[in-house]
Write a structure and sequence with these properties.
- The protein is an alpha/beta fold.
- The chain has one domain: Rossmann fold.
- Helix content is 31%, strand content 29%.
- The protein contains 7 helices and 9 strands; from the N terminus they run βββαββαααβαβαββα.
- The strands form 2 sheets. The protein has a 6-stranded mixed sheet with strand order 5-6-7-3-8-9, sandwiched between helices. It has a 3-stranded antiparallel sheet with strand order 2-1-4, with helices on one face.
- A hairpin with a 1-residue loop joins β8 and β9.
- α3 packs antiparallel against α4 and α4 runs parallel beside α5.
- The protein is globular, with a radius of gyration of 18 Å.
């Protein structure tokens, strides 16, 4: 079942065409990574799907949407606790508690700002699971995570996938994206490839404008 279908998306900002004729799909239990150079329109794509920027084209959503931007926008001078953040807008706290426990997060009275980047992501994802989110839009979720936290994040992705959730994830790490994704979208204003993860030097050179060799490439797809 498709959770998201984007057809012929165009975004113009400040008189500049940022996205041109972008189409993609995300299904239940599928992880789709968006790859491309800086300024390619990756974050703008997520914002258009959420409705934060105007666009032309069609965005068809089925189910509840969760959006985790790069900046979590929690004022560091306000002493939010883990519980404050995790329970925001949630009716059934037991669901959130269950996921926090599964993600290894305890101490709901501790300050949210004191958590590591990986722990913050887990708290936010637990909250969205608590409100029944089906599709997760993640913008550069690996930013600022050390190797251990990246491995924990991979486990979290597997957890979401196993629950039948859909994930659309912007990534700068080509090797990681090819390894964990069910599909990739190579984007630089327009789509150069949308399909199964594979390293094709022609596609990546056209997308990035330079020769690209992914580091830590572990995917074995042809």
């Amino acid at each position: 079942m498709e959770l998201l279908k984007v057809e012929g998306l165009y975004v113009e900002l400040g008189g500049r065409l940022v996205l041109e004729n972008v189409s993609l799909t995300v299904k239940r239990g599928q992880i789709v990574s968006v790859l491309g150079p800086n300024g390619a329109g990756k974050t703008t794509l997520l914002k258009a799907i959420v409705g934060l920027v105007p666009y032309r084209g069609r965005v068809i959503l089925k189910g509840k949407l969760a959006y985790l931007p790069q900046e979590k926008n929690f004022n560091p001078y306000i002493p939010f606790t883990v519980g404050d953040v995790a329970y925001l807008g949630v009716r059934d706290r037991e669901v959130v508690d269950s996921f926090l426990s599964r993600f290894g997060i305890g101490g709901k009275g501790q300050r949210f700002r004191d958590l590591s980047g990986g722990q913050k992501q887990k708290v936010l994802i637990a909250r969205f699971l608590g409100i029944g989110a089906d599709l997760f839009l993640l913008d550069e979720p690996l930013t600022g995570l050390d190797t251990v936290a990246q491995r924990e994040f991979e486990s979290l992705l597997k957890e979401l996938k196993g629950m039948g959730k859909g994930v659309l994830m912007v990534s700068h790490d080509i090797g990681h994206a090819l390894s964990v994704s069910d599909a990739v979208l190579c984007l630089n204003r327009t789509v150069f490839y949308h399909g199964k993860p594979k390293y094709d030097p022609v596609i990546f050179s056209r997308t990035y404008g330079i020769e690209v060799v992914p580091l830590g490439h572990r995917h074995n797809a042809p």
